[in-house]
Design goal:
The chain has a 7-stranded mixed beta sheet with strand order 1-2-3-4-5-6-7. Helix 6 crosses helix 7. The termini are far apart. A hairpin with a 4-residue loop joins strand 13 and strand 14. It has 7 helices and 14 strands. It is an alpha/beta fold. The chain binds zinc ion (ZN). The site of zinc ion has 7 residues, from helix 2. Zinc ion binds next to helix 2.
Length: 274
């Protein structure tokens, strides 16, 4: 089943793009109250004809038409199908329209899209991506978390667009929203938001300490740090892990806990604890 009903206002249509980064695939959400005749599509996902047909069928099953599109962020597994909004004849919204190559309107922090009997509030949560939004549904208190928090495992905060300090701040912001349930961009719903966000914060703090410990032990490049800290992770994921380590290093540099050392003769860049 690619389509499932999560609550009175929320339908999930799973996109057929599973991978190590997207888990079972991208979750496309349809938000609308029954009988309103409209739904908001959050993250249309990959530009795949069968996925589009599944979204249109799910809307039609509720006697509704797509009334607006909202993107959590610009990454292609969420926004590749941006052109569908134009073809559906509806407005599309994102925090940074210029990051998505289609006609998209800006949705600033705190702005709301009210359509189909639901009110979707934008909560700017940079970290995974600089333009990342979580979307709070006013009627239910559910929060769509995009890739800020996933249904399983942890998300990638990939330097340079990913920002670890911003990511940590955004986790604390998500905690303050007091969500009733989290609907992630990948993986299953999370019925205990407070516990999940606490785990995410603890996980990042632990990783940060592991990075500091690796530097202290003499690993002085992101690659060396990855070899030690991510020793138990599939090597295919090490390039992604290296971008995450760089994001940690950037945060630590800004906090003056770590220094970057440039050797002009070799152009070698290394890091050490200050
Ligand atoms: Zn994603």
């Amino acid at each position: 089943m690619t389509t499932s009903h999560l609550d009175d206002l929320t339908t999930l249509v799973l996109a057929p793009n599973p991978s190590p980064m997207t888990l079972d695939g991208t979750n496309t959400y349809l938000l609308g109250s029954p009988g309103s005749g409209g739904v908001v599509v959050v993250d249309p996902g990959p530009d795949v004809a069968e996925h589009r047909a599944a979204i249109e069928a799910a809307a039609a099953a509720e006697d509704a038409a797509v009334a607006a599109v909202v993107f959590t962020h610009h990454h292609i597994d969420h926004a590749q199908a941006a052109r569908w909004a134009r073809e559906w004849g509806v407005q599309a919204f994102a925090f940074s329209p210029e990051m998505i190559r289609a006609a998209v309107s800006p949705l600033a922090d705190g702005a709301m899209v009210a359509v189909g009997g639901v009110t979707v509030e934008a909560v700017h949560t940079p970290g995974h991506a600089s333009d990342h939004l979580c979307l709070r549904v006013a009627q239910t208190g559910a929060v769509l978390t995009g890739d800020h928090v996933l249904g399983r495992g942890t998300t990638v905060v990939a330097w340079p667009d990913g920002d670890m300090a911003a990511y940590m701040d955004s986790l604390h912001r998500l905690a303050r929203l007091d969500a009733t349930v989290l609907y992630p961009g990948h993986g299953p719903p999370l019925p205990d938001p407070a516990a999940v966000v606490r785990q995410y914060i603890a996980h990042r703090e632990e990783r940060e300490e592991q990075v500091v410990a690796a530097l202290t032990a003499g690993d002085d490049t992101p690659r060396a740090v990855v070899k030690r800290v991510y020793a138990d992770v599939d090597e295919a994921l090490h390039p992604a892990a290296e971008r995450s380590v760089r994001a940690h290093l950037d945060k630590l540099i800004r906090e003056e806990r770590v220094g970057r050392v440039l050797d002009p003769s070799s152009e070698r860049e290394s890091y050490r604890v200050r």
